[in-house]
Design a protein that fits this description.
It is rod-shaped and about 165 Å long. It is of the alpha+beta class. The protein has helices at 13-39, 41-95, 104-119, 150-157, 200-250, 265-321, 328-359, 371-381, 383-389, 408-424, 482-492, 534-541, and strands spanning 126-131, 137-140, 162-168, 176-185, 191-198, 367-370, 393-396, 403-406, 431-437, 441-448, 496-502, 506-514. 55% of the residues lie in helices and 14% in strands. Its main location: membrane. Its EC number is 2.7.13.3. It is found in: Cell membrane.
């Protein structure tokens, strides 16, 4: 059976593995160079200059070498043609007396003419004289063995002067380049004369020219590379200094400045940078002073309000305990007073907590606790609110306990804020709490299917005193600081608290905390993605 010539032969598996291994090794070996090339502006400029200058030098060298070579060969060809014409005229003067190739004296006369012409330094050192029919041929030297090509002989036979470049070993040894010039002699007997001119001197001149061009090109490329490196260094050095100074400024060293040298453009750049750094330092100092004054004001006001609030609380409690003895209008006013004082106390407590975060005095009291149990306690504590709002709260957690080293009080506060907020905005639809863990973190998600969040509101829900809908009636009378404090509590644990939502699809909050105190959260076991549940779809249909 004949082989299938159209089928492509697959390479062996070991060869493919070897090629893949070589490619991976080459990639790893070249990666430091690629990274260095990308990171260094000076290296890129110098490399680009070297590549461009090398291309230009090569093009220039080829053009110059070609032009000089063509000029030398053309000049030698013109001289050789003129010398060959003179030799043909000289031979014609001595061969005009012969009328037949059978004359015995013709061969001797042709050899004598060839010897005289070859020994004359004006003419070529190797000459061939022959009759047009090839009957008689005389050469000098007789042992050269050089022979013109058939094309050259055909052109000369037409009565034209023709030239050809070829290599022969006339003198023995390595072949050498020659210029062959052929001429036709029209007498009683037709003759052809061929002169072989050596081109050793031209070849040496061309070789010397190419060597000098190569050396000059290499020197020029290196010189351009050095010049590019020096010029680039003058520009890159201030830029690098500015980058280092900006990095130190970003690290908090606001007193760092660039050194100003001279009065050129780079000096003006350094001066402008220093002015910008000074203005930035002054602005940061003013902001720090204002922030410090604000934190101090919040802390002082919060502390100062505790004493009068305690007195008001005592009076309000006395009125509230005896409210049944008052008329209906006074009784209702007493209940409203008690409610607003409770809310005021909550606001005061949250302001004090915010002031602790701002001043950096907040600390953790970690212990190994069951996160699922904390979530159950929160749901149990908010069962009354959930019943008033007609919201069903469910918890989905792993079969085994999820133990994490956290501050139980702060985690309880975070979940209480998230769950109560979800119940308030659930619009009577279910609220789902999910607990999941990974090797390093535990996550708790609180999902409602209520009004949701408008585009851009997910980044603002943790702002202090911010509300998506200020006109919305809340049953718990929130202070606007709950989510802000929850975010600070999550950060204090080195965790994260994120939110997402869409109008009409509800809101999802995901709290992620490390399982061990002191670690940081890298990935959350629960993705921040809205996924409607069957219960929510069923409630919507109903």
């Amino acid at each position: 059976m004949a082989p299938d010539r159209g089928r492509t032969r697959e390479r062996p598996a070991w060869l493919r593995r070897l090629a893949q291994g070589a490619a991976r090794y080459a990639g790893r070996a070249s990666r430091p160079l690629v990274d260095r090339f990308r990171a260094s502006l000076q290296l890129r400029v110098v490399s680009s200059t070297l590549i461009a200058s090398t291309i230009l030098v090569l093009i220039f060298s080829f053009v110059v070498a070609g032009s000089v070579t063509s000029g030398l060969l053309d000049e030698r060809q013109d001289t050789a043609v003129e010398e060959t014409e003179n030799a043909a005229e000289r031979a014609a003067e001595q061969l005009g007396t012969f009328s037949t190739t059978s004359d015995e004296a013709l061969a001797k006369a042709m050899q004598r003419i060839v010897n005289e012409l070859a020994e004359d330094p004006v003419y070529a050192p190797y000459i061939m004289l022959r009759t047009a029919d090839g009957a008689v041929t005389a050469t000098h030297p007789t042992s050269g063995g050089a022979e013109p090509s058939a094309d050259l002989q055909a052109t000369v036979a037409e009565g034209k002067i023709a030239t050809q470049y070829a290599e022969f070993d006339i003198e023995g040894g390595d072949p050498q380049p020659y210029l062959i010039v052929g001429s036709y002699i029209d007498l009683n007997i037709d003759y052809e004369i061929y002169a072989f001119y050596p081109l050793e001197s031209q070849q040496e001149a061309i070789g010397l020219l190419r060597t000098n061009l190569a050396l000059a090109g290499v020197a020029l490329v290196l010189l351009l590379g050095v010049i590019a490196a020096l010029v680039t260094r003058l520009v890159v050095t201030p830029v690098r200094e500015a980058a280092r100074t900006s990095q130190r400024l970003a690290a908090g060293l606001l007193h760092e400045r660039m050194e100003v040298r001279g009065s050129d453009d780079l000096a003006r750049l350094a001066g402008s940078f220093n002015l910008m750094a000074e203005n930035l330092q002054n602005q940061i100092r003013r902001l720090e002073e204002m922030s410090m004054m604000q934190r101090r004001f919040t802390s002082d006001v919060s502390h100062e309000l505790r004493t009068p609030l305690a007195t008001i609380r005592m009076a309000a409690d006395l009125l509230y305990d005896n409210r049944d003895e008052f008329d209906p209008l006074t009784k209702r006013s007493t209940e409203l007073l008690q409610h607003e004082i409770d809310r005021f106390e909550d606001l005061l407590q949250e302001l004090l907590e915010i002031s602790r975060f701002d001043s950096g005095f907040a600390s953790l009291e970690t212990e190994a606790v069951d996160v699922g149990r904390i979530a159950e306690d929160v749901v149990e504590g908010l069962s009354r609110l959930a019943g008033e709002c007609g919201v069903a709260v469910t918890i989905k957690k792993p079969q085994r306990r999820v133990i994490a080293e956290v501050d139980q009080r702060r985690v309880h506060r975070i979940l209480r804020n998230l769950v109560s907020n979800a119940i308030e905005h659930a619009e009577g639809r279910p609220v789902e709490i999910r607990i999941a863990e990974s090797d390093t973190a535990v996550a708790v998600s609180v999902r409602d299917h209520g009004v949701g969040l408008k585009p851009g509101h997910a980044d603002r829900v943790f702002d202090r005193f911010w509300r998506a809908d200020p006109s919305r009636n809340r049953k718990t009378g929130g202070t606007g600081l709950g989510l802000a404090i929850s975010l600070e509590d999550a950060k204090l644990h080195s965790g994260t608290l994120k939110a997402t939502g869409a109008p009409g699809e509800g809101t999802l909050f995901v709290l992620t905390l490390p399982l061990q105190a002191g670690n940081r959260v890298i990935n959350s076991p629960i993705p921040l993605r809205l996924e409607p549940s069957k219960e929510a779809r069923r409630a919507t249909q109903d």
